[in-house]
Amino acid sequence: MAYVMLDGNMAAAEAIKLARVKVISAYPITPQSSVPEMLADFVNEGKMDAQYVRVESEHSALSVATTAAMAGSRAATATASNGLALMHEVLGMTAGNRVPIVMPVVNRGIAAPWTLWCEHGDSMCERDMGWLQFYSQNVQEILDLILMAYRVCEDARVLLPAMVCLDGFFLSHSMQKVDVPDQTLVDEFIGEFKNKNTYLDPNDPMFLCDLTGNEEYTEMRYQQKVALDAVPKVVEEVFAEFNKKFGRSYKIVEGYQTEDADAVLVALGSMCGTAKYVVNKMRKEGKKVGLVKVTMFRPFPLSHIKKAIGNAPVVGVFDRSTGLGSLGGPVWNEVAAAMRRSNCEIYPYIGGIGGRDVTVENLEGIFNELLDLKDGKKAENTTWFDLKGNPMEIRQVYQNV
Amino acid sequence: MYDIKHEAKGLVTHGNSACAGCGLELIMRKTMEVVGPDTIIVIPPGCAAMFSGFGKEGGLKIAGCQMNLENTAACASGIRAALNAQGNTHTTVLGFAGDGGTLDIGLQSLSGMFERGDRVMYVCYDNEAYMNTGVQGSSATPASASTTTTPGGKTSQKKDLMMIAMAHRIPYAATASLQNLNDLKKKLEKAKNANGPSLVHVHTPCPTGWRFNPALSIELARAAVRTGAWILYEYENGKITINNKLTELAEIDTYIGKQGRFKHLNAEQKTELGKQIKDNYFTYTSMLERMSIH
What we know:
The complex is a heterodimer of chains A (401) and B (294).
Chain A: E1 2-6, H1 8-18, E2 23-26, H2 34-44, E3 51-54, H3 58-70, E4 75-76, H4 81-86, H5 88-96, E5 102-107, H6 121-125, E6 132-135, H7 139-154, E7 162-167, E8 176-180, H8 183-190, E9 207-208, H9 217-246, E10 253-256, E11 263-267, H10 271-284, E12 289-294, E13 296-298, H11 302-309, E14 314-319, H12 330-338, E15 345-350, H13 360-374
Parallel strand pairs in A: 2-3, 2-4, 5-7, 6-7, 11-12, 11-14, 14-15
Antiparallel strand pairs in A: 1-8, 6-13, 10-12
Helix pairs in contact in A: 1-2, 1-7, 3-5, 7-9
Chain B: H1 23-35, E1 39-43, E2 63-66, H2 72-85, E3 92-98, H3 99-104, H4 107-116, E4 121-126, H5 161-167, E5 172-177, H6 181-193, E6 198-203, H7 207-210, H8 217-226, E7 233-236, E8 239-242, H9 253-256, H10 267-291
């Protein structure tokens, strides 16, 4: 065990090294680029014994990682934003072939307009592709969640891939003090990679992923659903074992000051750090607010969410993505469905997109609004809460209209 | 893993859903004869997917997977990387894709694989259109050929896969034809043993898409070579060998006259197409001779 200063991307690369990944496929995209750079250095300096495949696109990056794992080697790649969007159809291949890849996703919005900066729209677009999704609050969580995700994904009850999401720049480029575990302990924890059920091996040949008729397709998709249903239990076992071995405790969903709360906010990612600070500050002022931090969003942890929200009469859900065309953001939709038999009111909040900072003032404003809604002082919430005053005025072209 | 219900001679099932007279089926059988059981194959969706199988029934006795249409080369690279990581140098990794999956949507990942120098054997069966989806034109469809998306005849030329492969300086690339199976097998053997990426680009008569009598597949493969419409050559470590150096070409009608896809052309247009093919043969082969490192 050693404390070192790492940014989020360094922590992701360090975790991939600790997991003794044997095939790395690499394609750069801001703000992920330093992950493949660091992995290249590890391989070049002999710190990692791995094949480094410098591919020509993210589509190929995930293709290489997926078939490498099918052929018997632990494999990794990382991406962000439009890169993840380009991987879209391969994501289905990875999950459907039950390939347990762990992929850091450095959250960044998808064009247009172009943005380089943080939002969860990229990974949220892929939430129904059969992958697990974990969201990190800080740099330590990135490293720990990647290590734990390997255990979960490679468990015979699961055999599915996972994205470990980290907020672009807020985490990927933020240096924090990180406890990097000993290689020996990680080896004991993760173990050797071994294909289960599906594999490409000339000594025991099988053909994977042929055309499947409608008499079996539904059942094969159902098998994936059952595997996802098994995830929360496996994750809890792995979290407990991790805590025992490395002394850090994780929860699928963390309720923070929620027990007696009048208003709670559901959130994920790096903003949860700020949200906890705001909860502490407002509690000192006598305002009973709490935070529900969602670490695992896929599979959606229904019972954990319900338990964490408890009896709070008003609930705000903070989506760091737009959910365009929907009634609310993707997290709000799920929470609303989860709480449909409860008496609480659930309000959508959309903001912090394209790298816009989620400030103490933003979160305080949301909590105060939720309390006003509870007390009947307000009738409607402000979904797009961090809009500037003149949203329809910017970039207007007055020709041909 | 396979539960063999009917023992086949070789690695390909005896019964499969190929059309009568399918050129691809013969190419697959010859390829399997050369590569043998110590092979992992990647097949994209397309005509060759009938060898992936359907449901619980497979078409091949070797290990393999059917991935996306555009990533055959990348998926093969991933398998090779894993085998390298495991110290396995003996297993052949084979990409087996049609012209659409190779020259169109798969060209980027093919280029990536070539450029990296990954030891992958890649066979492109070129039936000159998207036959599995119902004969839509591809970049490999020859000029003037009619398809469902080029009903009046394609107005642009066929894309040159060999030149693209050679631009990557890969150790081995060749065109081949069903007109000479020994030549095809010899080329597949060289591709298998190449110390890096290799390509065998095989002209693939398709009775369904080209609209001809299924009994004539081999004859049409031969006619394509004799009329100069398909040029047989090899690129081996920088050296180019033209396998069918012809001084005189057969009448174009012996090739296009038997196919429905050229039926819309009038006599004058057929003569013009014949002239283009002839000119191209002599220009192209003399260019190859100048390009070759002797």
